[in-house]
Amino acid sequence: MFIQFEDEVKSVLKRAFEITGFRFSDLSLEESEHADLATSAAFRLGAACGKSPISIAREVRDAIRLDDSELIGRVEVAGPYINFFVSEKYFSRTVERIHAEGVDFGSVTGTGGKKVIVEHTSANPNGPLHVGHIRNSIIGDTLARILRRCGWDVEVQYYVNDMGRQIAVVAWAFEHFELDSSMKSDHAIADMYQRANQLLEEDEERWKEVNELMQRVEGGDELVLKQFSRVVEPAMDGIRETLKRLNIDHDVFISESSFVTSGDVFKIVEDLKRTGRVRVDDGAFVVDLKDLGIEKSLVLQRRDGTTLYTTRDLAYHRWKAEQCDWMIDVLGSDHKLVSRQLRLVLDLIGVKQPDIVIFEFVSLPEGSMSTRKGVFISADELLDEIKKHALEEVSTRRPDTSPEFKERVAEIVGRAAIRYDIIKVSADKAMVFNWREALDFEKQGAPFIQYAHARACSILRRARGDGEEDDLGSADPTLLTGESERELIKKMAYLPKAIERAGQDLKPHILAAYARELAESFNQFYRDSPVLNAEEDLRRARLMLVDAARTTLAITLETLGMEAPEEM
User: Fold this and answer.
1) Total number of domains constituting the chain
2) Are residues 74 and 197 in the same domain?
3) What's residue 354's pLDDT?
4) Which of 23, 284, 473, 515 has the most CB within a 10 Å radius?
5) Is the model's pLDDT at 11 over the cut of 80?
């Protein structure tokens, strides 16, 4: 409903500008603590017209007509600002709309069902996902969920590195070590990878054997391709299992090697040579990008004729560009340079560029993480530890419940806790993942938001137990005039706008912040407004509001990839 209110404000403002004769395309609308929407356009008009911004604001205000407006209640001038406030209808319409639309509330239209491909995670299959990897996974998955709500046809892809140097090391390791079948498959691969690196460091001459494998796989040697595939599959099985625990799915897994065997990689190299930008540097083919602001050239092909991950990534992106209207890549900050190179080189050969969401790294209080050295906390360990702590919390809070109930709630609360702890921080900010803070269930994180939903469900269950009809459509939402009732309704009305902003800006932390604020608003309403003990008509109106809040909380949690439990 906030979006419709905003549209009405834009409409009456444009009309007022026309009436007053001011030529101004930037309405400068902003959300304000002093109004539901405000415009500072008078500031800029004053500078352009040589008039007082205050007098301009008054002149525009006097020209505003609200005859056709249903959602604007009043318009006031405060200095150079023009403030807009919602009408009485805004509150009742919001509750009625949520009641009518149910789980479809919050969806934003306008994309026409265009297709977007979101690529995320794409971690090397040489070990399990760790805390750093899953920031990528959670950002990518949440973005995909938000974009679906925005009307996009979303396909989520995982680009499987099945032929790089690290995979060659694992393939070489299979010739020298036994896979430990007692371990989860991706952990067993990591164990082999670490042992292989140790052996290679002790005898550097043996790197020749690894390099030979790389040359043979790029030459299309079917035996080596099968060998690489055999080592990638168990790692990917383990990675998929971990992602499933985080409520994350990919629609398509694309193998890096497919662009070599199809010849697409070598077509990319030849197409770039025709641009006149490719030169030979110490036997290698490189793309010179100096005149485009990047000093470091992009290496396309090594002196031994093998291509690099980035070369194959170019072929992957050209293929992706043909499959969709929009591409989004989620990448760590160590990919800033290569992502700039990628975008520029794609432009050189006439391929549309992806939007890149760069996230800063997650570090641990103890230091950085490295799969090669075995210094990391796996996502599996993190999930196990959080579930263990969640189980303790549930057992303390609900000692009378069954073991099955405790186990189920611990699983969904624990998973949500880690997702929310990561997504609430803007991607462009580095974060230290602190185990104690992540496991603190008293903070206003996922359990706080989930509990607000469970509380709403509890109120509605008790109402049904008292004989209240399930159909609340006959309730009168105009009776909801209390301050905390109004604030809750405003917050619920803002959900589509929060989703729209998060999708347009590719910033999922916007929706995470909204979720916390929505839970806070509901809890304030719960403290201020008795529901079941209210007079009959008001009781029904408040039950309708509780049901709307339950729906809005459930939609928000689902869009963040978190379950909405009915009991906790």
Assistant:
1) 3
2) no
3) 97
4) 515
5) yes
